[in-house]
Amino acid sequence: MRPDTRGSKKGDQLIAFFLVIFLSEHLDEQFIFLMGVFSV
């Protein structure tokens, strides 16, 4: 199968999503908010 850039980008967003959820327990809400705005 050929590497799909669109698919890899989707994967990165999914990883970032889980990272935000995981880190949300350890980081300030402000940082999570900034990360959310940055990801969008």
Shape verdict:
elongated
User: Quick check: average pLDDT?
Assistant: 74
Q: What share of the residues lie within helices?
A: over 70%
- Poorly predicted tracts of residues: none
Number of H/I helices: 2
Summarize it:
By secondary structure, the protein is mainly alpha-helical. It has 2 helices and no strands. The radius of gyration is 13 Å and the shape is elongated.
Secondary structure blueprint with pairings:
Blueprint: H1 5-23, H2 29-39
Helix pairs in contact: 1-2
Please describe the structure with a list of short key phrases separated by commas or semicolons.
elongated, 2 helices, mainly alpha, 40 residues, 75% helix, single chain
Task: Give a description of the structure.
The protein is mainly alpha-helical and 40 residues long. It is built from 2 helices and no strands. The chain has helices at residues 5-23, 29-39. The protein is elongated, with a radius of gyration of 13 Å. The mean pLDDT is 74.
